[in-house]
Amino acid sequence: MTPQNISTEPFPVSRNVKKMQASSTLKAAQVAADLRDKGFDVIDLSVGEPDFQTPDFIKDFAWEGLQKGLTKYTPTSGLKTFQESIAEFYAEEFNTNFSPKEVIATCGGKQALFNAACALLNPGDEALIPKPYWVTFPEIVNFVGAKNVFIETEETDFILTAEQVKNSIAPKTKLLILNSPNNPTGRVISPEEMRRIIQVCAEKEVYVLTDECYLFFVYPPAEVFTSASLPAELRKYICVAGSFSKTYAMTGWRIGYTIADDEWSRAMSKLQSHSTSHPTSFVQYACACAVQNHKKSKETINLMLSEYGKRRAWLIPALQEIEGAKCVNPEGAFYALVDVRGFLNAELKASADIADLFLKEAHVVVTDGAGFGADGFVRISYATDLENLKKGVAKIKNLLQATKTKTAI
Ligand SMILES: Cc1ncc(COP(=O)(O)O)c(C=O)c1O
């Protein structure tokens, strides 16, 4: 029997969600998967996750956690051993002195960022976001009804300076969202500049949410730096968003954390208690054990870093050799942002068209820069093996050169 008097109106998506853009990085991943399903040999240079497996010793700890019966709810802010292990790991590694209570376990870095922004911002507040930015930052700010104010950084080769921040702070500025090493540029802000930026913000009572999910993926001479190592007077204004996703190749486990002072942490914990409660209990246990095993976890990180380093050493000169393309030196993470504005013409009007060309003509997937606030650029990820990278870049190079030749004719 067909139900009567039932409306067939479409689902009334909320205004909050309607104004969100679908994640361009996830969209690129979906395009690659669809092509693969159709049997094409796809070269995916869009991946935003390590191409390594989670180390076995962490998997073993997860199993140990299960065997110990860690299958129940944990406190909202996480297992005590998780909070303590993060605080101890940072203390050993960076000489920090924050308390375990300042750590909250989250479902990935993404929830850490959401918690921090939602616990602070009100409608009408302004959040400063340096360009290019990770796609999710402006969406979170929009979601809470605050306003995004972008800072252009091209003139400083995409490295944010304290001067730029100072010039951007206005009466309604409440938050600055930082990301170093940066996705999509790979640029790294030096420890000295980072201190200056945070000092400038603290003086104006502007809070700083610093996304450190690529913390350890830094190529010397650039230096690894965490804002958690700053003095307590400055830390009052800082929330660090950390993640196990990239550091330990654990993207699917969904675990991250925040480090913030007591009051900000309490507000975030209250929020999280009504959303996800906490990340998976035995995953928290596995991560706590992993970081307690400091030496082994650093070995794991260094193995990945060395592999990324080899790829980067090949990739950057190869991209810089493409006539008409430009690429600033990525000092961290595993991305290169390529300036393709020199190839735009009547047919290829935006970088999205160039990404499309790579896809259709060569089955090479890259991510359009527009979603990162970098229209005219494409992001290439080197979280893929060197052979794949070489094949993909050769195809891209041929296509770009053909575009130039065609334009010249
Ligand atoms: C800059 C940045 N922040 C945060 C995240 C979120 O990571 P996760 O939620 O997996 O920890 C990502 C993932 O790509 C990222 O690139």
Keywords:
409 residues, globular, 2 domains, binds pyridoxal-5'-phosphate, seven-stranded mixed beta sheet, Aspartate Aminotransferase, domain 2, alpha/beta, four-stranded antiparallel beta sheet, Aspartate Aminotransferase, domain 1
Task: Describe the model.
The chain is an alpha/beta fold. The protein folds into two domains: 142 residues, Aspartate Aminotransferase, domain 1 (Alpha-Beta Complex); 223 residues, 3-Layer(aba) Sandwich (Aspartate Aminotransferase, domain 2). The chain is 43% helix and 13% strand. It contains 14 helices and 13 strands. The longest helix is centred in the last third of the chain and has 27 residues. The radius of gyration is 22 Å and the shape is globular. The structure holds pyridoxal-5'-phosphate. The site of pyridoxal-5'-phosphate has 13 residues, from helix 5.
